[in-house]
Specification:
- This protein has 200 residues and is mainly α.
- The chain has two domains: 54 residues, Arc Repressor Mutant, subunit A (Orthogonal Bundle), CATH 1.10.10; 133 residues, Tetracycline Repressor, domain 2.
- It contains eight helices and no strands.
Length: 200
């Protein structure tokens, strides 16, 4: 694509275009494919253009991670909406399905968010979007908690189970030919959460 045929981006939406380009690069080529130069190319702007919004690749990664947490949170909430809120155990299972589905559909993005890649965690967009996802995990654990201490224990139990399983799956230590196989395997290992449910 020549300079004359590249799509132009107004200054106001260049940041979003670069983030979208970064997500696309991750999906197509993994973490190694993500560079400022390649993001600029996918967004259809000059190689120097990203500097207007991102001082470094770490800044771009952080913005992409923020967008990733929004997609991640939406995936959990989408599955939660499919079950009755009056059944807290099913709500937990649904949220976990959304967690696993997001990782299967976005393995490189999941790795960027959780895999130890250098990010600027204190940036407001990343802090806000990751906080929303954490809030969703917290909310699904509330029916099984009587106080702050029990809530933290339940939250860590659920998070450790689903995140550990998902990470092992992505590391190919567990091979599932179908998405449904992965989710079924996970749900079979879940405890009976109704035993933890607090009494009204």
């Amino acid at each position: 694509m020549t300079a004359s045929t590249k799509p132009s981006h107004h200054h106001g939406n260049l940041r979003s275009a670069l983030i979208e380009a970064g997500v696309q690069l991750l999906r197509e080529g993994g973490l190694e494919a993500l560079t400022l130069r390649k993001a600029a190319g996918v967004a259809g702007v000059s190689h120097a253009a990203p500097a207007h919004h991102f001082a470094s690749l770490t800044n771009l990664r952080s913005a992409i991670a923020a967008a990733g947490f929004e997609i991640f949170d939406a995936s959990m909430k989408c599955e939660i909406k499919k079950v009755s809120p009056s059944n807290p155990s099913e709500v937990v299972r649904a949220a976990c399905r959304g967690y696993i589905l997001f990782a299967i559909e976005n393995p490189a993005l999941f790795s960027l968010m959780f895999g130890g890649t250098e990010l600027i965690r204190e940036e407001p967009p990343l802090g806000a979007s990751s906080g929303h996802a954490y809030e969703t995990l917290t909310n699904i654990c509330l029916p099984f908690s009587t106080d702050a201490k029990s809530l933290e224990k339940m939250r860590m139990l659920v998070w450790s189970l689903v995140h550990g399983f998902t990470s092992l799956m992505l590391a190919q230590q567990k091979n599932f030919p179908l998405v449904d196989d992965a989710i079924q395997q996970f749900e079979e290992m879940l405890p009976d959460f109704s035993k933890f449910q607090s009494m009204e």
